[in-house]
Recover the amino acids of this structure.
């Protein structure tokens, strides 16, 4: 999972695209681990540790998602911690944008984030609210 200090920085002061990328990375990890466990690809002895890691990743996603209010979402999660329609609209907006970046541009974006460079130009046109 993510370093606690780095995750806190992303939530409190990081660029919006970094929040999307963290959610995407954690979601991919959770999906892969659940998929592999359901297909008996993980040794039985390792399942308790993987389940703890998955639970921790879920907690991290919830923390980042709650922090999206900084970017104009009024209620990203329901009381049951499910994404609201507003959240999914935001998520799909970012997902479409990042999914259409070339490999080279995706690499450039990642490096810019790691170097704490200004990534304000790395965003979709318009607003996710449209």
């Amino acid at each position: 999972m993510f370093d606690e200090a780095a995750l806190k920085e992303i939530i409190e002061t990081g660029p919006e695209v970094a929040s999307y990328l963290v959610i995407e990375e954690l979601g991919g990890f959770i999906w892969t681990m659940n998929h592999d466990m359901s297909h008996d690809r993980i040794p039985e002895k390792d399942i308790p540790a993987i389940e703890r890691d998955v639970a921790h990743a879920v907690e991290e996603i919830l923390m980042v998602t709650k922090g999206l209010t900084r970017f104009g979402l009024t209620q990203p999660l329901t009381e049951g911690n499910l994404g609201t329609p507003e959240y999914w609209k935001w998520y799909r907006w970012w997902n479409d944008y990042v999914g259409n970046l070339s490999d080279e541009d995706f690499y450039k974006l990642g490096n810019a984030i790691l170097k704490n460079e200004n990534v304000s130009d790395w965003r979709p046109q318009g607003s996710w609210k449209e």
Remarks:
- The chain has a mean pLDDT of 96.
- Residues 23 and 29 are 10 Å apart (CA to CA).
